[in-house]
Amino acid sequence: MAKRGHGEGTIYKRADGKWRAQVSVGGKRLSKTHTKRSVVAEWLRKTTGQIGMGLTYDQARVSLADHLQRWLAGVQGSLRASTYSHYKLLIDKYLIPSIGDALVKDLSPDLVQFCYDELTRAGVGAHTLIKMHAVLHEALRRAVETGLAARNPSDAARPPAAPAQEMKFWSETEANRFLMAARGNRLYALFYLAIVSGGRQMELCGLQWSDLDWTGGQLRIQRQLLRSGDEIFGPQKTARAKRTISLGAGTLDVLRAHLALQARERRLAGSGWLEHGLIFTSTTGTPVHHKNLVDRYFKPLVQAAGVKPIRFHDLRHTAAAIMLSHGRPPIVVSRILGHARVSITLDIYGHLIPGLDAGVGDMMDELVAPVEWSVETEKSEK
Question: What is the pTM of this model?
Answer without folding.
Answer: 0.70
